[in-house]
Write the structure tokens for this entry.
Amino acid sequence: MEPILLVHGGAGDIPDSRDQGKHDGVRNAAKNGYHILLQTNSALDAVEEAVKVMELDENFNAGYGSVLTLSETVEMEASIMRGDNLTSGCVTLLKDIRHPISLARMVMEKTPHNFLGGDGAMDFARKEGVEILAPPGQLVTETAQKALQTFKKRQNAGDSQPGVTEIGQEAPGVG
Amino acid sequence: TVGAVAIDRDGKIAVATSTGGITGKYVGRIGDTPLLGCGTYADDRFGGVSTTGHGESIMKFVLAKDIINRIAFQGVGAQKATEDSVKEMTKVTGGTAGAITIDKDGNIGIYFSSQKMSWAYQKGNEIKYGIREGDCITEKV
């Protein structure tokens, strides 16, 4: 079998001004993930690496660059799965963690569970020595703040559907 | 949302998906990304899928597993399964989405019902990428 590494960087009504950043980001993620795939022959290591690259890139709605809640906070979620034995790790309602995907992998490999969320997931992260960024809010970008401002203006104007933004990454109602 | 699907030399498949959700979501809202079968699914017998788009629609349709089921039970390849499933999800729910798939034979599926979805893959010394419908730009590595 010839190894393959395939990535996506999100779907929606992405403004044309963001195309180049998306192109550069997905190519970078594919290259880095593929390098790990060849080096380790581990699909699991490769997909984690590819996602980690995009979690550090503000062109994407994950990790640094995540969109904001109504309370102007970042809440992230992630999942990872192996096809050989269906083991999986899932996390939700994470705050101030640089790589949610790596915490999802820790859930898969170090707990008897599939899915941790909220306070329990954050406690697990601390116990595993995962860095909790301090002060809080370091994953918030200017683009995400502008997108939320635009959303709130539209909401006040009567359009209450989440996700609406012409400067953010996502289309109306799209995550 | 970002996602990755890989198949190694031994045919082992893995999938990862990560997201910040949607702008202006309620605190405590959970989307499709961390839900198995919705945002992520992998089964070496059939393939692996990562999805992105309108989470509430993806959850209702269990999109990732629906794509895998089409490969498993209809015997179709990754592209047809991905395209048919995303189209049907949009028809049924009204929401838009995208998905990337690699089936057990190493075939690739990429489809989105939204206006755009950025994607890229490397196989050998070539990277292909795009963002609009019909895009497929090739670069030698």
Remarks:
- Residues 164-173 of chain A have pLDDT under 50 and may be disordered.
- The first helix of chain A runs from residue 19 to 40.
- Chain A touches chain B through 89 residues (CB under 8 Å).
- The CA atoms of residues 68 and 169 of chain A lie 12 Å apart.
